[in-house]
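queue> pop job 88
queue> type: inverse folding (structure -> sequence)
queue> payload:
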């Protein structure tokens, strides 16, 4: 009699396990179906990389397609800055004389340049929070483009490359653009989340900088308390956003990249729609 009861209980537990697994598969399949449908409804390239940092489940669409990064390449520059300070090449508090100036995003271009100096930390903060192009170009100059690219490839970001400074549209016309893929961007953010770049302490500082409040279509329709540590970018025809999302019940990474936009505002619209779909999926999965 006891053996029969044990067999009966085991059968119930096994069936419950299979149902739970099928439920998870169904949720992931539904997410991929919704995102794939959205991507196919547009006539321009869209790449998506999503990672549930608790379960490890992923959704990848056009993940190995190369996209211009616009200002999203500034995450790699930030990582190189922390690599170099860890090697004691300089300190984040060291002062840098500001001489060059470029337009576009950022406030440094409007500063009084008389004896102007800023620390590496403040340059990094302006590069990330304001997407300041002058700060970015100064950091590229100080860190070295080749050195930044060497570090990028050492991280395993095989399809990411910094090829020009900000606002160099002549270089862009010649085919020299800063490029990456959704898969590479996901890998970079995952490494930062796990504390695998330089040190856990350095990654925590990078996350703090990436999480400084700024506008992003990723957050537009999410009515909840959360934090995003990320960066986006946009140039004519291109819009991308990516970040690590921190909620009380779950964390995840989302990368969305677009190119060849027929209308620039479509980029923000699509990114917001994708972010909302992913957030709803995470809420339903973690009920």
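queue> result:
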């Amino acid at each position: 009699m006891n053996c029969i009861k044990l067999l009966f209980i085991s059968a119930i537990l096994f069936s419950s396990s299979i149902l739970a697994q099928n439920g998870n598969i169904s949720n992931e399949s539904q997410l991929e179906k919704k995102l794939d449908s959205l991507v196919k409804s547009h006539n321009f390239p869209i790449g998506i990389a999503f990672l549930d940092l608790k379960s490890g489940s992923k959704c990848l669409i056009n993940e190995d397609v190369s996209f211009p990064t616009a200002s999203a390449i500034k995450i790699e520059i930030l990582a190189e800055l922390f690599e170099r300070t860890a090697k004691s090449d300089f300190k984040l508090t060291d002062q840098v004389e500001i001489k060059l100036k470029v337009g576009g995003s950022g406030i440094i271009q409007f500063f009084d340049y008389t004896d102007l100096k800023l620390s590496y930390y403040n340059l990094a903060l302006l590069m990330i929070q304001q997407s300041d192009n002058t700060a970015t170009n100064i950091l590229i100059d100080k860190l070295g483009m080749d050195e930044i690219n060497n570090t990028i490839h050492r991280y395993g970001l095989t399809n990411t490359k910094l090829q020009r400074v900000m606002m160099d549209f002549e270089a862009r016309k010649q085919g020299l653009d800063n490029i990456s893929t959704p898969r590479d961007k996901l890998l970079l953010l995952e490494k930062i989340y796990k504390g695998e770049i330089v040190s856990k302490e350095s990654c925590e500082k990078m996350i703090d900088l990436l999480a400084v409040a700024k506008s992003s279509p990723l957050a537009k329709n999410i009515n909840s308390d959360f934090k995003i540590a990320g960066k986006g970018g946009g140039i004519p025809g291109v819009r991308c956003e990516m970040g690590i999302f921190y909620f009380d019940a779950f964390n995840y990474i989302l990368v969305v990249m677009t190119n060849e936009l027929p209308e620039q505002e479509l980029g923000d619209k699509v990114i917001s729609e994708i972010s909302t779909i992913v957030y709803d999926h995470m809420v339903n999965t973690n009920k």
